[in-house]
Design a protein that fits this description.
single chain; alpha+beta; 4 helices; 5 strands; 35% helix; globular
Amino acid sequence: MPDAYYAGPGAWCFVEYKYTPTLPSKKTSKVKFNLSNQQKNWLTKQHEFGIPVFVIAGCEDKAFITTDFESVSKQTKETFLSTAIPISELISKLEKYCIEGLHISH
């Protein structure tokens, strides 16, 4: 089971959270979010069933949200920094998704 379930009048979803306290020093080094194969398989199966599931992976004060579960383990420092947004902005997107049903862009 994922870490969280969110629901509102506009939509609902399950979220698996992954966090690492620091980024690697090299921009080409992979960020270790530690999404297990069992978690990827469960999330992928639910996504295939049409159930709204996301991974939110973060470091320090930034994070990204995705339904591309394989991409989580492929994130480098460079790709993370190019796709991650401030956590406060991500929270706002998740709130708008649940309350207003607005699509979450990845």
